[in-house]
Amino acid sequence: MTNTNEAAVNESTSNQVLIPSGFVQIDLEESALLGGAMTDKIQLREPRSGDLRGLKVMDLLNLDVQSHITLLPRLNPKIKKAELEDLSLGALLSLQTQVVGFFG
Predict the structure, then answer these.
(1) Whole-model pTM above 0.90?
(2) Burial of 79 (0-12, 13-18, 19+ CB in 10 A)
(3) By CB distance 3.0 to 4.6 Å, which of 22, 28, 78, 91 could disulfide with 35?
(4) Which residues of the chain register pLDDT less than 70?
(5) Which residues have a Cβ under 8 Å from the Cβ of 74 and sit 6 or more positions away?
(6) Can you list the positions of beta strands (E) in 13-83?
(7) Nearest CA to 99 among 44, 27, 55, 53?
(8) Who contacts 19 (Cβ-Cβ below 8 Å, separation ≥6)?
(9) Separation CA 49–CA 42 (nearest Å)
Protein backbone atom coordinates (compact mmCIF):
# COMPACT_ATOMS: atom_id res chain seq x y z
CA MET A 1 0.00 0.00 0.00
CA THR A 2 1.39 3.40 -1.00
CA ASN A 3 1.32 6.29 1.40
CA THR A 4 -0.58 9.24 -0.17
CA ASN A 5 2.14 11.69 0.87
CA GLU A 6 4.77 9.46 -0.70
CA ALA A 7 2.73 9.23 -3.92
CA ALA A 8 2.38 13.03 -4.05
CA VAL A 9 6.14 13.45 -3.62
CA ASN A 10 6.84 10.90 -6.37
CA GLU A 11 4.34 12.59 -8.69
CA SER A 12 5.74 16.10 -8.12
CA THR A 13 9.29 14.82 -8.59
CA SER A 14 8.40 13.17 -11.90
CA ASN A 15 6.87 16.44 -13.20
CA GLN A 16 9.99 18.49 -12.52
CA VAL A 17 12.30 19.36 -15.39
CA LEU A 18 15.92 18.61 -14.66
CA ILE A 19 18.07 21.61 -15.50
CA PRO A 20 21.68 20.73 -16.29
CA SER A 21 24.30 22.18 -13.97
CA GLY A 22 25.41 25.64 -15.07
CA PHE A 23 22.20 26.29 -17.01
CA VAL A 24 19.24 28.54 -16.20
CA GLN A 25 15.72 27.97 -17.41
CA ILE A 26 13.84 30.76 -19.17
CA ASP A 27 10.05 30.74 -19.28
CA LEU A 28 8.81 32.11 -22.58
CA GLU A 29 5.62 34.17 -22.85
CA GLU A 30 4.28 31.74 -25.45
CA SER A 31 5.27 28.41 -26.92
CA ALA A 32 7.90 28.54 -29.64
CA LEU A 33 9.78 26.13 -31.85
CA LEU A 34 13.21 25.80 -30.22
CA GLY A 35 15.50 22.81 -30.33
CA GLY A 36 13.24 21.14 -32.89
CA ALA A 37 10.20 21.03 -30.58
CA MET A 38 7.45 23.34 -29.39
CA THR A 39 8.27 24.53 -25.88
CA ASP A 40 7.54 27.33 -23.46
CA LYS A 41 10.81 26.81 -21.56
CA ILE A 42 14.41 26.76 -22.71
CA GLN A 43 17.71 26.37 -20.90
CA LEU A 44 20.76 28.54 -21.47
CA ARG A 45 24.17 28.35 -19.87
CA GLU A 46 26.19 31.37 -18.88
CA PRO A 47 28.49 32.50 -21.70
CA ARG A 48 32.19 31.76 -21.49
CA SER A 49 34.82 33.97 -23.07
CA GLY A 50 35.08 31.74 -26.15
CA ASP A 51 31.34 32.07 -26.78
CA LEU A 52 31.84 35.79 -27.32
CA ARG A 53 34.34 35.39 -30.19
CA GLY A 54 33.50 37.73 -33.04
CA LEU A 55 30.91 39.59 -30.96
CA LYS A 56 30.98 42.94 -29.21
CA VAL A 57 29.73 42.91 -25.63
CA MET A 58 28.22 46.38 -26.13
CA ASP A 59 26.13 45.03 -29.02
CA LEU A 60 24.81 42.29 -26.74
CA LEU A 61 24.07 44.78 -23.96
CA ASN A 62 22.28 47.02 -26.49
CA LEU A 63 20.07 44.03 -27.47
CA ASP A 64 21.42 43.86 -31.02
CA VAL A 65 19.31 41.10 -32.56
CA GLN A 66 22.00 39.69 -34.88
CA SER A 67 24.52 39.46 -32.04
CA HIS A 68 22.03 37.55 -29.89
CA ILE A 69 21.06 35.26 -32.79
CA THR A 70 24.76 34.43 -33.13
CA LEU A 71 25.33 33.90 -29.40
CA LEU A 72 22.22 31.97 -28.33
CA PRO A 73 23.02 28.72 -30.22
CA ARG A 74 26.42 28.76 -28.51
CA LEU A 75 24.64 28.80 -25.13
CA ASN A 76 22.33 25.93 -26.07
CA PRO A 77 23.44 23.95 -29.14
CA LYS A 78 19.91 22.54 -29.61
CA ILE A 79 18.71 26.00 -30.66
CA LYS A 80 19.07 26.74 -34.38
CA LYS A 81 19.58 30.22 -35.86
CA ALA A 82 16.60 29.73 -38.18
CA GLU A 83 14.37 29.04 -35.15
CA LEU A 84 15.56 32.25 -33.48
CA GLU A 85 14.84 34.25 -36.63
CA ASP A 86 11.25 32.97 -36.53
CA LEU A 87 10.60 33.73 -32.83
CA SER A 88 8.03 36.25 -31.68
CA LEU A 89 9.48 39.49 -30.36
CA GLY A 90 8.35 38.65 -26.82
CA ALA A 91 10.11 35.26 -26.85
CA LEU A 92 13.29 36.75 -28.30
CA LEU A 93 13.25 39.55 -25.75
CA SER A 94 12.91 36.99 -22.92
CA LEU A 95 16.07 35.26 -24.16
CA GLN A 96 17.93 38.52 -24.71
CA THR A 97 17.04 39.74 -21.22
CA GLN A 98 18.51 36.58 -19.70
CA VAL A 99 21.71 36.94 -21.75
CA VAL A 100 22.13 40.57 -20.64
CA GLY A 101 21.51 39.42 -17.05
CA PHE A 102 24.56 37.16 -17.29
CA PHE A 103 26.71 40.28 -17.63
CA GLY A 104 25.24 41.94 -14.52
Answers:
(1) no
(2) buried
(3) 78
(4) 1-17
(5) 47, 51
(6) 23-34, 37-45
(7) 44
(8) 25, 43
(9) 22
